[in-house]
Amino acid sequence: MDVTIEQLDRVALLRDAGLDALVRKHWGTNKGATPEEKLAEVRRLNNDLRAAPGDPERGRSLFAERCATCHKLFDQGNAVGPDLTHANRQDRQFLLVSLVDPGGVVRKEYQSYILQTRDGRVLTGLIAEQTPESVTLRDAKGEPTRVARADIETLTETSASLMPESLSKELGPGQIRDLFSYLQGEGPAKGKDQP
What we know:
The protein is an alpha+beta fold. Helix content is 37%, strand content 18%. It has helices at residues 5-12, 17-27, 35-51, 56-67, 92-100, 167-170, 173-183; strands at 72-73, 76-77, 112-117, 122-130, 134-138, 144-148, 152-158. The strands form two sheets. A five-stranded antiparallel β-sheet has the order 6-5-4-3-7. The longest helix has 17 residues, at 35-51. Mean pLDDT is 85; it is low at 190-195.
């Protein structure tokens, strides 16, 4: 089973000794990036961005593939995370810090929760709906999961973002330039067909 570092980090937030022992046994210890390492990553990416221009069309494809699952930009994508169309996209430093450290600042409406059920399942997502009978979480792919309140062991707010911290490391320098070219661009031309 493939498990991401972000998923392991969320399990650690439960502070359950049994789960912590299982994580250590199967995946070892994850300490995450230090603030200094995050700053170094921002600097490295900034240097990559200064090296050459990017291609906004390739960036648009990358956005659709990597970001649109959660974010909307120019009417493309989903509203799991913030709509980037009117975000501070011209501030490169803001975008870089948000990419490298997505949990650094998380607005209340995008606060992530960890739900542990009585039968041992662990779910992570945004609260999409709450009733006296159930809680519905929306995961990073936008998929809702409804859980009856009687089946909930714990529901904990977390400071972690649903956005993976590893995204910047998964993209090469050219891809970062292409993505930022699209993110910081003016969007599709008026009247031009959009996918």
